[in-house]
Amino acid sequence: MTSISKDPTRERLLRAAGELFYREGVATVGVERLCQAAGASKRSLYQLFASKDELAAESLRAFGAQEVAGYVSPAATDLTPRARILQVFQRLEERAAAPGFHGCPFVNTAVEMHDATHPASAVAREFKDRLTAYFEKQAKLGHARHPKALAAQLTMVFDGAAVRAVMRAAGLDGLAVRAATTLLDAAGLDVPA
Amino acid sequence: MTSISKDPTRERLLRAAGELFYREGVATVGVERLCQAAGASKRSLYQLFASKDELAAESLRAFGAQEVAGYVSPAATDLTPRARILQVFQRLEERAAAPGFHGCPFVNTAVEMHDATHPASAVAREFKDRLTAYFEKQAKLGHARHPKALAAQLTMVFDGAAVRAVMRAAGLDGLAVRAATTLLDAAGLDVPA
Q1: I need a surface site. Which of A118, B160, B170, B171 has the fewest CB within 10 A?
Q2: Domains and CATH numbers, chain A
């Protein structure tokens, strides 16, 4: 995990892009502003990335893993599958109520791109699929009926809850956890003893 | 409903903004392009609207009512409250599977603005609240438990489903209707005889 092989300008551009795009939007933040925030020249940016679009995709990829990791628990914990799924929604509720929450970066990017074939949209979908796969895995472990459909529905609740928090600039008051719980109950996911 | 008192340039700008912003995003579509599409000068635009932001808010307001009307049924129909709620999700499924669907314009605008205090975000929230109020009214008529919480959760499912369709450029395969049905069942909403 040493960064000796990494280009520091590239790293700074990725970090600035990740932060500014998340906070203000990909289309809103211009290349000038990005370069200023990263302490990089436009020339460097275009030497390192083919386009702003590619930078958007790469910065989402660079920070996507830690975003997903912020919601899911490592397999080693002794939580039940049901508790692991609910924890995702509890964390979303915590984050949505905290300052600096601007929604789900994958949802935001996909919506902002207005084009599912855009490279950044593809990265967004890829990470969203990881969350859905996590739900499906836990659903299977917890003996849920129709684990695939349940996982997709939980993802819809997650995304809709993130949108709600953004739209209202307010927390979720337990609504995301309640909706997820209802879906888990209906799917017969094992309740912890 | 005569348009005799309306400024035709204003109408053209509102229409062009409504269409282009929905299809490509508010930040993406520049003022030049808007004016070209509307056959209007930049001077006219700034005489009629204080800013592009105001035009975004006004165009969403101009087309918001018909967007909501596309989902909800007039009170006069003889559908049950449960069927009225499910119809919203059935229509979303139909739209999401059809070409030209770019998600919910209110969700898109709120996400793209990255600022809940932006005038366009306020309009988006206002129309989203109308859908939630419709759900709540039907939930009460159908004797649901916690109609307010149910309505908020249904709205989250609606928004998450719209995001899913955008992210995948694909239909919903009944997932939105299934999730909504599960929430209605759990809330004890009257099943039609």
Answers
A1: B170
A2: 8-62 (1.10.10.60), 70-186 (1.10.357.10)
